[in-house]
Amino acid sequence: MSAGENAAPRPLLQVRALSMRFGGLLAVDGVDFDVAPDEVFAIIGPNGAGKTTVFNCVGGFYRPSSGEVLLDGARITGLPSHKVARRGLVRTFQNVRLFRRLTVLENLLVAQHMQLEHRLLPGLLRLRAYRESEEAARHRAGQWLDVMGLRPYANREAGNLAYGHQRRLEIARCMAARPRLLMLDEPAAGLNPREKRELQGLIDRLRREFGVAVLLIEHDMNLVMGVSDRILVMEHGRPIAAGSPGRVRTDPRVVKAYLGEA
Amino acid sequence: MGRLGHALLAALLTAVVVAPVFGLRLVREGAATLLEPHWRPVATAAAAVFAFHLARPWLARAAGRMRLPQLPALPAGGRRSAALLLAALALAWPFFGSRSQVDIATLVLIYVMLGLGLNIVVGFAGLLDLGFVGFYAVGAYTYALLYHWAGWGFWQALPLAGAMSALFGFLLGFPVLRLRGDYLAIVTLGFGEIIRLLLTNLGGLTGGPDGIAGIPKPTVFGMEMARRASAGGGTTFHEFMGWAFDSRDMVVYLYLMALLLALATLFVSSRLIRMPIGRAWEALREDEIACRSLGLDPTRIKLSAFTLGAMFAGFGGAFFAARQGLVNPESFTFIESALILSIVVLGGMGSQLGVVLAAAVLTVLPELAREFAEYRMLLFGLAMVLMMMWRPQGLLPMKRPHVELDP
User: Fold this and answer.
1) Do the Cβ atoms of B276 and A113 come within 8 Å?
2) Which of A15, A158, A221, B72 has the fewest CB neighbours in a 10 Å radius?
3) Helical packing angle, A163-176 and A128-148, nearest 10°
4) Residue A93 and residue B405: Cβ atoms within 8 Å?
5) Domain residues for B28?
6) Is B293–A59 a contact, with Cβ atoms under 8 angstroms apart?
7) HEC readout, B237-291
8) Does B65 fall in a domain?
9) What's the total number of domains in chain B?
10) Beta-strand (E) ranges in A49-96?
11) What domains appear along chain A, each with residue ranges and CATH number?
12) pLDDT digit string (tens) for B92-115?
């Protein structure tokens, strides 16, 4: 299952023999894959295949039962999630998790927390370093709002946005945190066809313009096939196929997993 | 069961509840204690409840027609001017109010300080802290003990009182902030009680239940505000100013100092909420997992809220000790924590102006209700219940946003 045949010299993310056991259930069983910098890598599979569990293990939300996760060659297995995020792995959630009562702008400011002057004294005294840091943060937030077409909603409460906008805001919030690897957990869920097409364009653009690698979990085959460089297919916690979209689409095991034994 | 049945049941329950309280009275007759039945009040209460329940549908219709007055929502800009107006009014107050009024106003300001401190923890960061009074006690005792054992004055002890409470907040917060919601509330409740019990039982150090008395009032630039300088030599304030001594001066001075401390607390906490740390508190209140996914360390952020909140309680405590001249563990019971929490909730969680208003209401109301003696707390409770039914979001709900972006 080595999925790195034509990958760049050093993969950004390496996942090795990852397993996760919940009591008697082996939710993820021996998953291996690499993600190159600037690559879009997708994990697909039927419901309950263990995709989100892989996400949670990679992002530090679960501590995997065995196996390891390397970012830029450094082990990040078992690090708490906020430390994983600080190293550049930032994710969205299947059910959008915005700071609902904060404004759209503030959501993006919180995401920049680690990059800002967040010590007490400079802020209390409104020193110049602090004022400049805040100004820069607002500016960067504005830029991301422009990229996502959300500027008209900047001062609205995030919880009041339309669902499609909330999804986009969540991605913007990730980007404001300056990730190297953007992890999207079913970003197209609940979007209409037009929004799905826009999402595909957006993922492409983030990778090309902003040089971010993308790890994607998705059910929508059109989106996955259209946007991914490589795909890993999972079933019952195990990887069953990997490779380019063309190869995966015709793999008999994949066809069987998706269409059932006919 | 019809309306009549309901009313009968309610009346019966009332009788059961009221009977032991009003129906049976203990009367001492010489050496013997007799139980003397008084069935009249029980019957009256049951009848009243019966009548109320029969008339309820009609009352509900009447209440539906009646419109409660709506508090106007202040626009964002109006808040600033309202705050300034309030500050100006507060500054002028001691020169108009009577001595006891100024004294009560000082008490209000102490609660403003405490309320704003707890507001950081509960309102901003969303951590339910039921042991806040513990930090208040730490601040008060820090000053009292430093005076008692080392002869420190108020101004020397004040920063240390804040620091000490902050330290306690930090140390206590460290193990418990991993807990969520209800669990955190219970543990903090326990901490508040532990601090009080320690103060009671460490008799040798803290004076036990009697506490420490004779704590000096704050000095004015090193001058005492007393009829005569205590340890000879020093000039007293009224001598320096060339006034006749007036004991009222001290009351006014304490008031102005409380005002200064409360304004400082207001200033600091309203800056904090606009800073990255304040945004992080609010974000944490909204969604902890999302915070972690963005690289924010929840434990550190909660700890900062807990520590800063405790620090303000410490300042408040030191001032309280100076004003009373006496501290004992009785002043730091759970009911005090509950009162401070009520101030935050009644004001509108996270709303600073709301906290100021609620502190005034909840301190002045029981004073006004003094003539109702033992029913005072009952009225207090009733007011809280009605308030929460009428306006659950608090007197002045928190206003967001803080930063805007031009479209």
Assistant:
1) yes
2) B72
3) 140
4) no
5) 3-55
6) yes
7) HHHHHCCCCCHHHHHHHHHHHHHHHHHHHHHHHHHHHHCHHHHHHHHHHHCHHHH
8) no
9) 2
10) 66-71, 74-75, 89-91
11) 1-88+179-262 (3.40.50.300), 101-178 (no CATH)
12) 888 888 888 898 999 999 999 999
Residues B348-394: tens digit of each pLDDT: 888 888 999 999 988 888 788 777 767 777 777 887 788 778 777 88
Mean pLDDT per 10-residue interval, chain A, length 262 residues: 53 94 91 94 90 93 94 92 95 94 94 90 91 94 94 93 95 96 94 93 94 92 92 92 90 80 48
A103 and chain B in contact, CB less than 8 A:
yes
Comparing A25 with B67, the larger pLDDT belongs to: A25
CA angle B394, B396, B398 (to 5 degrees): 90
User: Is B66 an 8 Å CB contact of chain A?
Assistant: no
Q: Are residues B246 and B310 in the same domain?
A: yes
Residues B110 and B30 in one domain: no
Helices (H) and strands (E) in chain B, counts: 17, 4
The model's confidence at residue B232, banded by pLDDT at 50, 70 and 90, is low
- The answer to whether the CB atoms of A113 and B279 lie below 8 A apart is yes
CA atoms within 13 A on the CB side of A145: 24
> Any chain B CB within 8 A of the CB of A180?
no
Tell me: do B48 and B94 sit in the same domain: no
